[in-house]
Every structure is written in C-alpha cells, then in structure tokens.
Amino acid sequence: MVTIALLHYMHARPRFIIVVEDELLIRMLAAEALTGAGFSVIEADHADAALAILQARADEIGALFTDVNMPGAMDGLELARHASTRWPWVRLLVASGRLQPAFTALPSGCIFLPKPYDPDCMVSQIRDLTMAG
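Predicted structure:
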C-alpha cells in the first residue's frame, strides 16, 4: 500500500531533483543512486547552472541537493538560502566534507549531510524531504 502511494505521488506530480556538485564522479554517483531509486535527476556542476535550471523549471523541481564548496560566485550554502527564499517549495539537502555549518547558517527545513555520505542515506533523506512536501 505504501509503495502504491509512493508511485502515485511520483507519477501524479513530476518532481526533479537537482544535484549540484563540481566533482564529476561524486555528482554521477549521487545522480545514479537517485535515478535507481526512481527519481528524475538534473545535474549541475555549479550554483549558476542550478539557478538557471530553477529559473526555467522551478515548478518541476522537488528538491535541490548541493555541495557547499564549489567554484563560482556562489557556494552551496548561498545557493540553498537563495532557493529557499525564491522557491520555498523546493526541499533542500546540503552536503560538505570540509565544514559543518552552524544550524543557523542553514535555511529553515534544510538538512545537512556530512561527506563522505552513504548513497542509500542520501536517497533516504531526499525521499523524506520530498514526501514531506
């Protein structure tokens, strides 16, 4: 019964997950794990690319999974804060292996995932976030 409800939810409202990671292999692994769990994934290698995707397709985006440290004018924390303000329905998961942000640095409802993370744990976090919305 729960599986039927999950499938109905995923098919009734198409939701994409944006994976923002500058390290190609890490991005590919995250995208593969999410795709294997039934999510549709859009990959971005920096915050500006993720913002362009959000601006073009915000109504289709269910969650944003971003690394903190990335090249460019905006890091993952800034991206998450901006997305939270502009697109409040987009759920947020932030990862980093270099820093543990203070709770107050994260937007409301954002979850932090320390690196290295278990792909199954990441998928579970995304599933919890998207089902809550």
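Summary: Residues 13-132 form a domain with the Rossmann fold fold (CATH 3.40.50.2300).
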